Amino acid sequence: MYKIRKAEKLNDIIYKMVVEAPRVAKHCEPGQFVIVKIDEVGERIPLTICDYDREEGTVTIVFQPIGASTERMKTLQTGDYFEDFVGPLGKPSELVTDDFEEVKNKKVLFVAGGVGTAPVYPQVKWLHEHGIGADVIVGAKTKDLLILEDEMREVAENLYITTDDGSYVRKGLVTEVIVDLVENQGKKYDLVVAIGPMIMMKFACMTTKKLGLPTIVSMNPIMVDGTGMCGACRLSVGSEIKFACVDGPEFDGHLINFDEAMKRQQMYKTEEGRALLKLREGDTHHGGCGNCGGDK
Ligand code: NAD
Ligand code: FES
Fold this sequence. Notes:
Blueprint: E1 2-9, E2 15-20, H1 22-27, E3 33-37, E4 45-53, E5 58-63, H2 68-73, E6 81-82, E7 84-89, H3 94-97, H4 100-104, E8 108-113, H5 117-129, E9 135-140, H6 149-155, E10 158-163, H7 174-184, E11 191-195, H8 198-211, E12 215-218, E13 234-237, E14 240-243, H9 244-247, E15 250-252, H10 258-267, H11 271-281
Parallel strand pairs: 8-9, 8-11, 9-10, 11-12
Antiparallel strand pairs: 1-2, 1-6, 2-5, 3-4, 3-7, 4-5, 12-15, 13-14
Helix pairs in contact: 5-6, 7-8
The structure holds nicotinamide-adenine-dinucleotide (NAD) and FE2/S2 (inorganic) cluster.
């Protein structure tokens, strides 16, 4: 059992929990995710790690309820327990694993959208702790939905906030800020890391492609069980078939077929859609989840 040391509501729809999970805290790196289970019958919920404290043995997760399990999860309070808290899973961010001298010389622009701000935070923090400054754009629908502003301000070299409705700082989408920084303010970047809703990552990649900026995205939104078994997170990366939970969650955004991934995500929600995907994708569909009959 994994104790929730602190449960907090960040705003009307987003929740933050600091969970006692010493083994995960000891080994996790920015970019990785955990799978949480409320109780024995609860679904497995994959969530990207927002923060960790190796000394305290805690891992922080941030989530927005989008289904029955996360709706139940939001009712958990400080002092309650998770049945399971498995991780770290997935590959760490390349910024953490690549040659440090190379990373040190890179100017990185992070683009965080909505709840996607949570997985961006540990990457910016890691760079900051290693003496590397990074610029960060955070986009939210409204001022009230902006999360982790103070935390991000502490670790970012420059923080650019934008809201869809103009209720805080500036009005507009994150993609407009990318263009403004590069084209109007003459900022030079070697790499963009964009994490947020699929549609944001798609348009961020279209923007950075035009600007000639290599871009990494996190495909966490299409994961379902996070084990490599269900096949929900199958996606085309260039000419290759990958699975976000085992091969990612981070990928070269310019190689991802976002339209296919978003369409597939919708299809995967129904039994009929899963059956059709299995038929079309054959051996590369993956199986074993019990939802579609798997490899049978
Ligand atoms: P949101 O809809 O509020 O969007 C956040 C920001 O993204 C907006 O403020 C805007 O600046 C930008 N954006 C949205 N649509 C855009 C477009 N068409 N063009 C350019 N920019 C655009 O975000 P939300 O409601 O917090 O998002 C929730 C989603 O985030 C969930 O679906 C969840 O799966 C996903 N998410 C992704 C990750 C990840 O690892 N990629 C992590 C956590 C959550
Ligand atoms: Fe990746 Fe199920 S979430 S295979």
